[in-house]
Amino acid sequence: MKISENERKLKIMHQSKEVHQLTSIKSGQWVRIVSVPHGILKAQFVRLGIHEGERVKCLERLPGGTVVLQKNRQHIAVGNQLAKAILVTISGEKGAHRD
Amino acid sequence: MTDSSSDKRIEHFEKHTHTEPEFLEKDNQKSKIVLVGNPNVGKSLIFNELSGMNVEVSNYPGTTVEITKGTYLTYEVYDTPGVYGVSSFNDEEKVARDIILHADLIINVVDGVHLERDLFLTQQLIDMGKKIVVLVNFMDEVNKHQIEIDFQRLSHFLGVDVIPITAVDKTGFDRLDEAIVNTREGTQREETHSVLHSMLKMVGSQAEALLILEGDEFVAKKHGVQPGNRRDEIYIERRNRVNYIISQIIRDVSVKKRFSELFSRWTIRPSTGIPIFIFALYIAYLFVGKFVAQDVVNFTEKQIGQALWEPWIRGLVTDIIPSTSWWNTILVGDFGIITMTTTYLFFLLLPLVIAFFTALALMEDSGYLPRLATMVDATLNKIGLNGRAVIPLILGFGCVTSATITTRLLGSEREKTIANALLQFAIPCSAQIAVIAALLAGAGFFPMIVYIVTIFSVLIAIGTILNRVLKGESAPLLLDLPPMRMPRINNVVRKTVFRSYNFMKEAAGWFFVGALGVGIAQITGALTFITKLLTPLTTHWLQLPAEAATAFVMGIVRRDFGAAGLYHLSLTPMQITVALITITLFVPCIASLMVMMKERGLKEGFIVWIGTWIVAFGIGGVVSHIVQ
To answer: Count of A–B CB contacts within 8 Å?
Structure first.
């Protein structure tokens, strides 16, 4: 809880092998969010619990690039342009090793 | 809305004044209870329980956002639109924000299955210093999902009462009174508490101070201060706090996949989603297009309207005004304001509109519409729209006028322009579809294909061209998909009644004006004159009988009116197709033209209107010369 923003980012950098755009992630893959676009979009993502450091599942990647993210029981659809601007690292295939 | 001159002025001790919405100041004696929550958390069920039948539904001043107000004991109760947080990102949020700022106590309803998402708003309300109580709804689903929630610790963390309920079967409603009495200010995060103090001196309200720090321009402007730039920071701290609370109070042990979740994914994937969409459309067609548009309307229009109402009122009027008088023609003639317009509005349009809004509410409340929006998102991107635009476009098939109003929910000006143009040019409304379907059914299979392909191509062409020509970028899709649930019948009925009533209120006046216009044109000979003027266009270019021009002129007033005018002409199947293509692409009805001009401005409205003339006759003529 008391991890500051910078520490969090460092932790991400440390763990990251390779940073991808969300659009290049396959359905069923788990990812950790590295960055989301700034401004109102960021505020909306934070409200929905999708921000730097969070681990989410790419539930569906539709033809055309629209992505549906799953976080716990919540499903969030993200358009292609926006998904391109979200950077993630791959974080395992299953929900088993959550930290 | 805060600028309205009728609003009450309030003076703060820091010597600045601002206005408050008069709407919220009607009864200062009563304390205001406000229901707040994310979308689809069941607020309205609790609202209904509290306020019973005594409810006032209205549009919030200056918006199309619907709000409901009632009374409970000595309280005024307000329902607010579902929001994920308090700020000013869209109309719903602005309305919710205004009502929340005026609340004396808040009942915060959260979805027990989505606590992690919902508690962000809860914590924000606490940070605003509002007196709240938290109702955790959907406990039946929480139990089905085998989610364990430690309510005592949750209450301890938040510093307010937390009460589990299941709104559908009223479980836990016996504790509502206790909940209201026990509302209190919760535990603020220390960081928030200290930064609030500086801003507090300037605006006098903790809630508004917080919103200004979070960069809310509207609240800042109201108090004449600069909006803060600490939103990201405050939001992330709040999110972390919520995540921490969740990690301490929830144990989610289930692994079982539920059918609704599986079905939800089928509706999103094109391979299964497209068949599901076609099936849904077919069901909607059976209900709206077959049952209501044919069986019900046949009865109401023919048996009630034309057989009972019209002869009765005609007899009554003719007793007073002789049938030779032109007044008689205007009032109760073929296009009479009282006869035909009333039949049309109440016995044809109203059943259709009700049927259509029912189908729409069912699609919304089941959670299907957001999934459809997701599936078609990439396709709509190609014409400069995102998945959300599927709502006004589908609504357009019901009534273009009401669809035009909903284009407000789109993210950017260019999207609104594109969606409006598509609606006005290429989407036939339900009243028109009924007539078109009847005429095409008589024309045969090939003409029907020609019609559908042409209209669809024009729709894509207009979208593609506007997407190229208009500057800027369209907003991307970001949509929280609500769970798929069985729609609640009384919620569907409530929505349908409200929307149908609002539509009739908005459109009815213009139908009367339109009928009056045609009536006068008919008497003065203007109708014949314009028809003659259009004749070369009709006979040579479109290769239709000269009388078809009358149908087009009437189409200026009402789209289906034009199509219906083709009924009496003897046309070949291909002539029917050409005439219908022209009528479909032709100008929007007067009601939707007026609404479009109000929404998009005179200039844009006028350009679109002129454009429909050119496109309608242009495409109609080209098709005519190709197929004949």
So the answer is: 123
